[in-house]
Amino acid sequence: MLIKHVVMSYRLTSLSSSNSHTLLNKAVLRRQLFLIRALAGDTELSNRKMAQQIEDVNAKVLEADAEHILRAITPSLDPNRHKGQAGKIAVVGGCREYTGAPYFSAISALKIGADLSHVFCTEDAAPVIKSYSPELIVHPVLQESYSVREEDKESISRKVLAEVDKWMERFDCLVVGPGLGRDPFLMECVSEIMKHAKDAKVPIVVDGDGLFLVTNCLDLVSDYPLAVLTPNVNEYKRLVQKVLKCEVNDEEAAEQLISLSKGIGGVTILRKGKFDFISDGTTVHSVSVYGSPRRCGGQGDILSGSVALFLSWARQYLSAADGNLNIKPVNPTVLGCIAGSVLMRKAASLAFCNKKRSTLTTDIIEYLGESLEDMAPANSYQDTN
Amino acid sequence: MLIKHVVMSYRLTSLSSSNSHTLLNKAVLRRQLFLIRALAGDTELSNRKMAQQIEDVNAKVLEADAEHILRAITPSLDPNRHKGQAGKIAVVGGCREYTGAPYFSAISALKIGADLSHVFCTEDAAPVIKSYSPELIVHPVLQESYSVREEDKESISRKVLAEVDKWMERFDCLVVGPGLGRDPFLMECVSEIMKHAKDAKVPIVVDGDGLFLVTNCLDLVSDYPLAVLTPNVNEYKRLVQKVLKCEVNDEEAAEQLISLSKGIGGVTILRKGKFDFISDGTTVHSVSVYGSPRRCGGQGDILSGSVALFLSWARQYLSAADGNLNIKPVNPTVLGCIAGSVLMRKAASLAFCNKKRSTLTTDIIEYLGESLEDMAPANSYQDTN
């Protein structure tokens, strides 16, 4: 059972040094005990056994003080800033078959507070994605094999890349994968886009079909510290098989996640599930805030857009703090994952309270703002001045 | 008059054995007496005559304990489950002319609690259906005669089938017909899709133009116990004419419905009307919960999507119960029809209370969640633990 080895640590010394977040955070402790009981059953574990297990796994998985992190990295709103400074995100995805996923990802970034959100998709997908919202900037630049002749592929590929390159350096983060599909020609072009993003040091969040691409060509992200992979159960399984040449082992979940991250050169991995586990190959952080029991498609897309924006904000925060920090960890990709995860869970929880079984992804997106406000109030310029 | 033979039975022994649902369910009995009086007029029937009629038709039509059935088969929400486990539905329909119907059907399944809802439609219809909602996965794979040259038909037909086959085994149920149109080439392709669904043992709910197809080619569903037909007045009339070679006879409505179902090898038929009558060739169950007097187009599409999802849930429920049941009947297609019917009626009733003459299908869809919550509260994980 997962509980045997992946129990949240009691010690949160490495997570927070501020007075408002005591070393032994009682609320977190209570939640951890609840989780332990929920996972293992009260009768299964004597207190002695539980203490032993906690001793065993201490420091393997740290329950992130996610709300504190989210609050710290979310920039204050300042009327002196201009358009773009709060974040410019681009989603690479959207093909003839899938149009909802890139929309969910891009609009989520906007609803959390990004200034601009772009989508690079196929020509077929563009009018549909545009129709979901006038807020998005949608570029119909990608092409799928069925619309391209063999002899034109090279020139079209060059053209696609030139179109994306025009924008690349303006982006704070790229999300690759939502609704990308698996067309071979499209995949080739997107591989090139990822290489250019890496060269330009633009962070990349990889989800959905982007993970299919990356699993088959690990070089696209390996050794790139600004890459984040956000696999679900099946995607994680395929990654483990490919990189570690073994099956997923929940008895050694923390160690395996660390090995997987190390195996891809220290990229950050957010393993989605009942609890989210995040690692960059050094430690494992968990976010276990309760979300929702609904598993409607599209929730992963909200997360990818959220992680992309928070990651950008974390980089801004770390760069402005200049070493004077009151949060740990200090890897912006890990901070982005933690903040994205807790926000997504809070919004899903509020949406579910309201809509119950009827909850859909669009309902969750509608609660992103309220959830963020609960954790990091906007306090307008007028209020604070 | 229908009342002469199709009166709801007083005996519900076969429907429920739980204490909370007594053998002589008083609420149902009151409703039945009300219906009898409403149909026949108080003055027409002496108590003696009424008793005689009840004696005559006893056990022919059983008023389903629909809410109990809906509650039993609706799965509890469990955070340990992952995407897809609460249901994956596909609608085959949507052409140049009709785009609303497949949307209504597919979105209804999602709003009741399915995890994923697909639509397979023509290339023209796809962008429009996609634009109604980013939650649906819309495949632009079907083609109509006007866009296909005679010599290409065979290869295109094979391609369409290959596209659908890629997904077939992932689906818990197929809905065939909403907004399908009657283009001959399209009908040929859809016939092949139905054959493949049958081979793969994927349940099929047939409505709208799908019923036109099936009425002309009964082999597509005959002897397939996982097929459900949901005819309205006219579609039922054509089915009776084709299968029983006679006209609809409301004096013998229950017997005729049973004969019709038997005549198609025991497929389940949901005869829509003021009351819904459901039979798989053995008994007839009725759902007479009051819905709405509005007859705006599209309500049948909500029903087909709902039946598809409830049918899938009923199969999961029956398989998990392993014979240890407290509901009858035990045919999942009949259970799905009963639950779909009562939910649709409840939602229509709430929508009408709110919107009156202005009630449209989208308004009814908005009440699916609340109606389901009334009958089968979601009780989040936190509540139950």
From TrEMBL, chains A, B:
InterPro entries: CARKD, Ribokinase-like. It holds the Pfam family Carb_kinase. Residues 66-375 form the YjeF C-terminal domain. CDD domains: YXKO-related (cd01171). The keyword ATP-binding applies. Its cofactor is Mg(2+). ATP binds at residues 272-276, 291-300. GO terms for molecular function: ATP binding; ATP-dependent NAD(P)H-hydrate dehydratase activity. Catalyzes the dehydration of the S-form of NAD(P)HX at the expense of ATP, which is converted to ADP. Together with NAD(P)HX epimerase, which catalyzes the epimerization of the S- and R-forms, the enzyme allows the repair of both epimers of NAD(P)HX, a damaged form of NAD(P)H that is a result of enzymatic or heat-dependent hydration. This is ATP-dependent (S)-NAD(P)H-hydrate dehydratase.
